[in-house]
Amino acid sequence: MDSQGNGKNNINNNNNKEEQNMNNPNQFKLMTDWWQQNSPMAWGEMYNEYITYIASMTKIYKEYIERSEKMTELYKELAINTEKMTELYKESVKSTERMTNHWLNKFPNPTSSKEQRKEKQVNKLKTKNKK
């Protein structure tokens, strides 16, 4: 019998709690907050914000693509200019070689000072030996 009495008390306690919750103004505030967040209007607003966000991101991505294409064109132009510079340096080297060879043919390379000393010593020895 005690268990039946406890069961009735539990039911009465639950009913009292529900009545207290219904009289609690915070309960309604929580409910209205929940409804405002989850109502079709709130979802519509969120969806509109999402669409605006996607549109701005699309614009940023398009600008990124345009700038990437421009950078690609600049790199291609840089590669062409680098090839031209390489050709100019090659021409400069050839021209410098021709000029150096020309002047070397005009004025033969003088012997080095060591070679000149050896020649002088050899000549001195030859002249002494002849006497």
Q: Give helix % range.
A: over 70%
How many strand elements?
Answer: 0
- The string of secondary-structure elements, in order, is HHHH
> Tally the helices: what do you get?
4
**Main sheet record:** none
What fraction strand?
under 5%
How far apart the termini lie comes to 157 Å
Q: Pairing-aware structural class of the strands and helices?
A: mainly alpha
**What is the arithmetic mean of pLDDT?**
80
Name the quaternary structure: single chain
Uncertain segments? none
Label the overall shape: rod-shaped
Output the radius of gyration.
Answer: 50 Å
SSE layout:
Blueprint: H1 2-23, H2 25-38, H3 40-106, H4 113-130
Question: Short summary of the structure?
Answer:
92% of the residues lie in helices and 0% in strands. It has four helices and no strands.
Summarize the structure in words.
The protein is an all-alpha fold and 131 residues long. The chain contains four helices and no strands. It is rod-shaped. 0% of the residues are buried. The model has no long low-confidence stretch (mean pLDDT 80).
Keywords:
single chain; 131 residues; mainly alpha; rod-shaped
